[in-house]
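Q: What does the assembled structure look like for these inputs?
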Amino acid sequence: MPELPEVETTCQGITPHLLNQGITNVIVRQAKLRWAVPASLAAKLTGQTIVSINRRGKYLLIDTTNGTVIMHLGMSGSLRIVPSTTEPDKHDHLDIVLTNHHCLRLRDPRRFGAVLWKKENPLQHKLLINLGPEPLSDAFNGEYLFKASRHRKIAIKQFIMNSHIVVGVGNIYANEALFIAGIRPTIGTGRINRQRIDQLVGAIKLVLSKAIKAGGTTLRDFTASDGRPGYFQQQLNVYNRNNEPCPQCGNTIILRQQNQRASYYCRHCQT
DNA sequence: AATCGCGCCTGACGGC
DNA sequence: TGCCGTCAGGCGCGAT
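A:
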């Protein structure tokens, strides 16, 4: 399940293969993703050159000489670079074929992902324009999060998973960051003091940057663009560890549903 | 304005 | 073995 570290790993993995490549063809085998892949995508892209690849939150932005492809990997999406003669898998929905006879291939069994097109100013796209700051940027700091958190009644876990507050924190890393910060996921956001908000900001930055270094987290189906899994799951403290001992105090890790999401935490270490 | 719950979708898994 | 129900979850959207 790609969260920010997995998308970043993918972005870094595909960039050297795509940069300055021409696009000779686009093959859409399954247009029904979260939103329909634009029917005009192939016409827009064919003959263009890829000029840069960026990430904003969990969105990948592939800039070409004619406009930008905006991709989201949803729950189960992955991108690979393969020779264009490689036989597609059942869930390989889209190929962007390059002049080097390889293609960028999108696989997404659950089809929660998206492939969109924006002619110019991709950051102004409706889905991107209201996103919160990047968690690893200086704009995401204690002052910002504290201010945003005042008078909010929502539980802190849902708050940090809200992409309008900060991008890229999905369920896995929200659980992990709250554990590191010693904050119980169910606490009302507005009741957390500045010092603890600062700790939470530090914990989010720490867990995300460590996960990027490890190449992401592979629990079910994530693999990097070279097909290798990530290794951050070995460093998970609480996620998927219900009934196991807390690595800090030895008490049993609790699992409870919170807004239809699994929250894992230690009742002793997280208050 | 903030919050809540729904729905999209497939594969894995457990129970019978 | 095979069938079926349940769960997982990002996130936009409509309802409250």
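The mean pLDDT of chain A is 89.
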